[in-house]
Amino acid sequence: MGVATDEVRLIWTSQPPPQGTRGGKPLWTFTTRARVDSSPAIAGGRVFVGSNDGRVYGLDLASGKKVWEYEAASPVTSSPAVAKGKVVVATADGQVICFG
């Protein structure tokens, strides 16, 4: 399995792409309102990703459907960190936000 991001979509693939290719077979995609600069985190059957649209998204790993979203005050460009049932992100204006 692998995850790739492009300008505004998170693409979940069934397997890592073969060497020398650009991607595996997409299982689902999720479109944000702006570019995604960070890597998503996966834990507990969820995918967590921040976006330059100022939101953090919690997606269902199997389907890619949005489970929740949080609107921060500025772009979320850090990769989420997950530990002990909590998700932590940082925003471009220096806020650190903890969920869970």
Beta strand %? over 45%
Q: State the order of secondary-structure elements, H for helix, E for strand.
A: EEEEEEEEEE
Low-confidence blocks of residues: none
| Main beta-sheet strand count, sense and barrel state | 4 strands, antiparallel
Q: What can you see in these coordinates?
A:
With 100 residues, the chain is mainly beta. Helices cover 0% and strands 47% of the residues. It contains no helices and 10 strands. It has strands at 2-5, 9-13, 26-31, 41-43, 46-50, 55-60, 66-71, 81-83, 86-90, 96-99. The protein has a 4-stranded antiparallel β-sheet, with no helix packed on it. Strands 1-2-3 form a 3-stranded antiparallel β-sheet, with no helix packed on it. Strand 1 and strand 2 (9-13) form a beta hairpin. The radius of gyration is 13 Å and the shape is globular. It starts with a strand and ends with a strand. The model has no long low-confidence stretch (mean pLDDT 85).
